Amino acid sequence: MKRVLSLIALVALIVIATILVRTLTFGSSQNQKIDKSVVNVDKARVTRLMSESIAFETVSTGNAETQSYEAFEQFVAWVSASYPEVHTNIELLKIADHTLLFKWQGKNSELQPILLTGHYDVVPVVPGTEDDWNYPPYSGKVADGYVWGRGAMDDKSAVVVMLEAATLLVNDGFDPERTIYFSFGHDEEIGGPQGAKGVTDYLRSQGVQLEWSLDEGSFIGKDIFPRIAQPVASVNVAEKGSVTFDLIARAKGGHSSMPEQEVAIDILANAVTNLRNRPVAGALEGVSLEMIDGIARSGPFVLRLLAANKWLFGGVLEKQLSSSPTGNALIRTTTAPTLLRSGVKTNVIAPTATATVNFRLHPRDTPDDIENHIISAINDDRVTVKLHGEGMSSLASSVSSRTSDGYKSITKVVQQVFGDEIVIVPGITIAGTDTKHYSKVADNSYRFQYMMVTPEDIGGFHGTNERVSIENLVNGTAAYYLLLKDVASR
Ligand SMILES: [Zn+2]
């Protein structure tokens, strides 16, 4: 007995020692020291222009019949009037409806061009929520250190600071070696079917293959990751795809006074419940793993201990991630029932009931994999599974390089503007961006905005009280200025 006990003690000791050694050698994320750079940004001017840009109600309604483009035309005219230096020195190509494609010709045709992009269409303000806004959503009110309004973060601020950076560079007499494209989309919020797709088709027709592109899709999060004191810049190297399926349950209809044991609505309700109870398999691997490890390295001891010992705690970590909506979205294809319809009258049992379920595809899954998953999770042949909408699905993107010159430049500028203490990690964009199009003509595609975002700001994305801090406008301008100088002068 004594020998057994001492054997157990020995094994426990070895396990503890292994855990500790792995934790202590896991390392901490130390950025290479880079000095902060100072760029002379005209704070009052960028604030005013940001505020003005919000007043144009460039709303993508998603309804082709009622969509008006009057505000879009006004916005385009405003860009010409507000950024004369850009218009004089950089060629404007109007090749995709209201999307603006600027081409700043480089001197060295040997160098591959790059593309910086954003979009100026916005999502609607949900009717009935107007009064929840501290300031009217299209007022562009400047107050409390912020510019308020729809599009302040998503994504007019990107357009404004890029144009501002280009203006500064023109005024400095900057003449790029490398060709730079700027594309400002007008229909990103409905998938970029004309704008980003049109630009992509055009670039392809011109034989342009970009070295890299940079779009929205991530930011620097402050106080967003639990127990991480430093701000985290997640420079996203991939983007999830999307596929939607209809689940159609069929059963006998009839008078509601004599229901069968199960009617179509019951069958569908069970099918949806079964599907939700069986999430698509996920795993902490690839880019998500690099991201979590990168963050954990700057985290408290217990987090480093978990991350350094996935051989033992991998399951705990995955469970922990799965319990939060964002963490869950990072490691697997998500399942979201979004539409439900059945029935015509209170006393009639409907013979069919349909649920629409949207899946955001992780790079490891295809639409076919998901269809098979649904059929097996539901396990009921009274329910038909059908792809919803032709041509509406998109695969997850490929994963871009984390060692390319582009990635290095983008991340170096984070430090130059926001300081050395920022934790920089690669990540994956869990929603869709226009880059699903642009990436077709780019060797690498990155999704990251030079903007510091707090938990308070987050609710503004597609929600109420969207706002951008004036500090972000100044830093954003400085960042694109430094980035362009860095990548286009060689
Ligand atoms: Zn956006």
Description:
The termini are far apart. The strands form five sheets. The chain has a six-stranded mixed sheet. A four-stranded mixed sheet has the order 16-9-8-18. Strands 12-14-10-15 form a four-stranded antiparallel sheet, covered by helices on one side. It has 16 helices and 19 strands. The model has no long low-confidence stretch (mean pLDDT 94). It is α/β, with parallel strands linked by helices and 490 residues long. It has a domain at 43-217 and 407-413 and 432-488: Zn peptidases (Aminopeptidase), CATH 3.40.630.
In summary, what is this structure?
With 490 residues, the protein is an alpha/beta fold. 38% of the residues lie in helices and 21% in strands. It has a domain at 43-217 and 407-413 and 432-488: 3-Layer(aba) Sandwich (Aminopeptidase), CATH 3.40.630.10.
